[in-house]
Each structure stands twice: as C-alpha cells, then as structure tokens.
TrEMBL record:
SUPFAM superfamilies associated with the record: YjgF-like
An annotated GO cellular component: cytosol
CDD domains assigned to the protein according to its UniProt record, in alphabetical order: YjgF_YER057c_UK114_family
GO terms for MF: deaminase activity
Pfam hit, one: Ribonuc_L-PSP
Source organism of the structure: marine sediment metagenome
The name this protein goes by in its record: Uncharacterized protein
Family: Belongs to the RutC family.
Length: 139
C-alpha cells in the first residue's frame, strides 16, 4: 500500500481537529487538495458575495497547501470548480493567469445551489502530480 501523508498548511485555518479533514493528502506522487474557499486563518469567510475576491483567495490558499506538500500550481493536473453561478467563471481569468500562467490542467465546473456557507460563491479542489515530466500533445 502506498504511503499516505496528511498535509495541513500553517498558512490556512486549522481544520483537522475542528472539521475532521486535511487540507491535502499525498499518496505516492499524487496530491489531492481538499476544496478551497475564501476562508482566512481564523475561519472567517472573506470577500462575501465578491467572486473575484473569493477566487483570488481560493487560488492563494491552494498555492499555500501545494507548497506545504512540496508542489506548485504548475503541478496541478485537474481542477474541479463548484460555483453558485457558472457565469462568474469568466471573471476568474486574471487570477487564474496570475497563479497558473500558461499551465492548462484539466478542468470541470459544476453549478451548485449553495456551498457550505451562504456567502461563498466558489469552491475549488485540485489534484497535483509531482516528479513527472510534462508532455503536451496537440495544440
């Protein structure tokens, strides 16, 4: 059985004891990042009803978790977006390019009725793979 490492970033709100999950789990060279939201280190929801502010914080939180796991945003191979309003995704491009540059992971976006807090507009989970060569096929 592959080794499983439970990862929690000290830059994010502690979740293991209070909410009984980890920021990420590393299995082999794959890192599974829990859904990230616009929540600060004190568990306060930030940028209430402001999609651009929330997605910026989501990506920063994701970056912090990946760095705690020894990875970067360039190692992300899959993103899953859960959005209150899918049309908001068009507003994410400045933040997306800031954190991912020209990197283009696989992506899924799902519109949901509500996330776990009524002021949240987006939650994003990720899968990253480290230590593998990147090959691009096609355009």
């Amino acid at each position: 059985m592959p080794k499983r490492t439970f990862i929690d970033s000290d830059k994010l709100a502690p979740v293991r004891e209070k909410l009984t999950y980890s920021h990420a789990i590393k299995v082999g060279n794959t890192i599974y990042v829990s859904g990230q939201v616009a929540r600060n280190k004190k568990h306060v929801i930030c940028h209430k009803r402001d999609f651009e502010g929330q997605i910026e914080m989501v990506f920063q939180n994701m970056k912090d978790v990946l760095e705690a796991a020894g990875a970067s945003m360039q190692d992300v191979v899959k993103l899953n977006f859960f959005c209150r309003h899918l049309w908001d995704l068009t507003k994410m491009m400045p933040s997306y390019h800031k954190y991912f540059g020209d990197h283009v992971p696989a992506m899924t976006a799902v519109e949901v009725v509500q996330l776990w807090h009524p002021h949240l507009l987006v939650e994003v989970e990720a899968i990253a793979v480290i230590g593998e060569e990147q090959v691009i096929i096609g355009k």
